[in-house]
Amino acid sequence: MNPIDKTPKQIVKELNAYVIGQNKAKKAIAIALRNRYRRMQLSGEMQEEITPKNVLMIGPTGVGKTEIARRLAKIVQAPFMKVEATKFTEVGYVGRDVEAIVRDLVEVSYKMEADLQFDQVRAEARGNANKRLIKLLVPAIKKNKKEGEEEISFGQMFEEIKRGETPSLTPVQKEVVTEEIKKKRLSVREKLNKGMLEKQELTLEVDEPSRKAKEASEMLGQIGIDLGNTLNSLAPTKKVKRTMTVAQARTYLTREEARKLVNTADIAALAIKRAENTGIIFIDEIDKITSKAQKNSGEVSREGVQRDILPIVEGSQVQTKYGLINTDHILFIASGAFHESKPSDLIAELQGRFPIRVELDELKAEDFVKILTEPNNALIKQYIALIGTDNIKVTFTIEAIQKISEIAYHVNHENENIGARRLHTVLEKLLEDLLFEGPDMQMGDITITEAYVQNKIGNIAANKDLSQYIL
Fold it and tell me: Which residues sit opposite 325 in a β-bridge?
């Protein structure tokens, strides 16, 4: 099944493997996602008329807002970009402009599309990479040339220009392949195919990592210009030597060969289409850009940031280095705690662009028990695996897990409520000695009991002053 074809029930079922509770939010987002698939089954004229029903998630920190959105994108393999509303500024001030969100989404979409295209030519690219590996492992004899006799391969130059790369002006040296070298190469090919040389080291010339002028690049990025790419196209690519294993060199060379076999213009066009039709932009901390959240008049206008966000949510065209993208059908999910403000404090036009609103429930002690044990990546499972690397088998009794949950819930209500993130704090403090002493302890099995939890962190949690700073 194509990931985007999944029904709302299937999406919710997969979200349940990672996020506990919050069924209302899961249901609303699953419906919004299925509607995108439904839209793509309609005629072109009707498709243009149907816009995504953007979602606003309201709830305190640490209840799963970001996790739901992030997992959702992975489930349907959609381009996903998470941004914090507070990182953006009103046009005219120093800082990132809101259109950068869309350009970043297109970058993610391009990488996803490039990986798909590379997978289609991977077998051929791997074969070409192996040929290059053989030549690197058994190099030919370089023929000495007299001064002024160097040749430049114009055919190679034209091929590089066609691929949009900077042509190499390095003179081509004549190589001599003797019968002995041919025999050695046949032997090496056989060993390579059997996987006998994977750990052997060799020296490979790779492109020097490009260093971009970040601030200037971001400013020019506002008009769709990538400064790094522009400068790289003017100067020839520098090569640096790296020592790596045959396995690592094959991975690098396979990707390099795959680039030669795909059409970058096709990838760019497909990336734009993918971002337009399946892209998800998650705007976190949207409550922090309401006028109520503005503490003094000296700050950048928060309402100005809202007005700048509005056009991309409403639907506009944004210039990117891969082409023009239309944001009409990108799904926007916004979230905020709305402690000091409420959704109605957002400007009316922006409120109207987030018609689906769901309130996420505050987590209870019983929810913490489920978070610790049920998800595929449950915290308890993570710590058991981490400590297991020191040959120590850790077991948690159900009473201990319940005690940990009660302590986390109690500390959240006595101090700042940080939701499920409090479990990280409590567990790290609980297992601190074991994590520190573990590598030097020659102990096989350890059981974490309720008494152990009470002894390690129960007294800290009961003392409000201590728990405020330690937990």
Answer: 318
List Cβ neighbours of 224 (8 Å cut-off, separation of 6 or more): 103, 318, 319, 320, 321
Q: What is the DSSP string of 119-188?
A: HHTHHHHHHHHHHHHHHHHSPPEEPP--TT--B--HHHHHHHHHTTPPPP-PPBPPEE--HHHHHHHHHH
Choose one of 315, 342, 359: the last residue of a domain.
359
With beta carbons less than 8 A apart as the criterion, state whether 26 and 59 touch.
no
Q: How many domains does the chain have?
A: 3
Same domain, 354 and 442: no
| pLDDT one-digit tens code per residue, 304-357 | 788 888 889 988 999 999 999 999 999 999 998 888 888 888 888 888 899 999
Looking at the structure, tell me whether residues 259 and 317 fall in a common domain: no
Question: Distance between CA atoms of 234 and 43, rounded to whole angstroms?
Answer: 45
Choose the final residue of a domain: 330, 359, 388: 359
Q: Which domain holds residue 38?
A: 3-114+269-359
Q: What is the CA radius of gyration of the chain?
A: 28
Beta-ladder partners of 96: 88
Answer yes or no: do 248 and 289 share one domain: no
Helix axes 264-278, 23-40, angle to 10 degrees: 130
Question: Strand, coil or helix: what is 201?
Answer: strand
Cβ atoms of residues 415 and 466 within 8 Å: no
Residue 55 and residue 354 in contact, taking contact as beta carbons nearer than 8 Å: yes
Query: Is this prediction's pTM over 0.85?
Result: no
**pLDDT score of 220:** 52
Flag whether 221 is in a domain: no
Residues 183, 281, single domain; the answer is no
